[in-house]
């Protein structure tokens, strides 16, 4: 049985380090797991009118529906995000809000989740990761407790091909993904 993981990258820029880290993580997923990036850049800015049955003339955008269906079909979600202004980038918050509605069918609800944050500075996107956990805390999503992955000085972690330079980074991220995979499996058995 193959487990599918949606990977959400909290950066839209072409040269994003978060995207490179996400691609490394996808390659390091345990056997039996298939992960792929779900794009969030084309999602219209969240507006509750789209989800409000009382708001005529503002149908739910097709991009919202397809994003929600992709999440609901997955066995888990892995976020890989930088930090902007001490919190999550706006594109990621937009995706979180879109996944949080409608109340009757919340895509995030109960979905096992993992987070890898990074920063070009030393703190590894600490505030971003904590803020993302806070934003998701309403949806009863199982997370690995430990380890937590804050990748600081991320520019130095990747080579010119976008691959992790050090074996220690590979082992650390692999161990995290193994723990995340356990959470996904446990959730499916429960
Ligand atoms: C608008 C903006 C705000 C930022 N705020 C923070 C911040 O609060 N903390 C931090 O560590 N880095 C911050 N940075 C630096 C980012 O970590 C850095 O640009 C990183 O490479 C972005 O991730 P990406 O390569 O995945 O796009 C900020 C960058 C931008 C453009």
TrEMBL record:
Pfam families: FMN_red
Domain NADPH-dependent FMN reductase-like: 5-154
Any Gene Ontology CC annotation: cytosol
InterPro entries assigned to the protein according to its UniProt record, in alphabetical order: Flavoprotein-like_sf, FMN_Rdtase-like_dom, NAD(P)H-dep_reductase
GO MF entries: FMN binding; oxidoreductase activity
Gene3D superfamilies xref list: 3.40.50.360
Protein name in UniProt: Oxidoreductase
């Amino acid at each position: 049985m193959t487990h599918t993981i949606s990977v959400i990258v909290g950066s839209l820029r072409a040269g994003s380090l978060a995207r490179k880290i996400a691609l490394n993580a996808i390659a390091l997923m345990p056997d039996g797991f298939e992960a792929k990036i779900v794009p969030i850049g084309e999602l219209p800015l969240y507006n509750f009118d789209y989800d409000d049955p009382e708001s005529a003339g503002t149908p739910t955008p097709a991009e919202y529906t397809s994003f929600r269906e992709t999440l609901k079909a997955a066995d888990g979600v892995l976020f890989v995000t930088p930090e902007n202004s001490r919190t999550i980038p706006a594109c990621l918050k937009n995706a979180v809000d879109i996944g949080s509605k409608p109340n009757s069918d919340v895509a995030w609800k109960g979905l096992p989740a993992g987070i890898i944050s990074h920063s070009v500075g030393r703190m590894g996107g600490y505030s971003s990761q904590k803020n993302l956990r806070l934003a998701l805390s309403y949806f009863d999503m199982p997370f690995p407790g430990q380890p937590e992955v804050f990748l600081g000085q991320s520019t130095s972690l990747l080579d010119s091909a976008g691959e992790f330079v050090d074996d220690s980074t590979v082992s650390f991220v692999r161990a995290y993904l193994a723990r995340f995979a356990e959470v996904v499996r446990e959730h499916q058995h429960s």
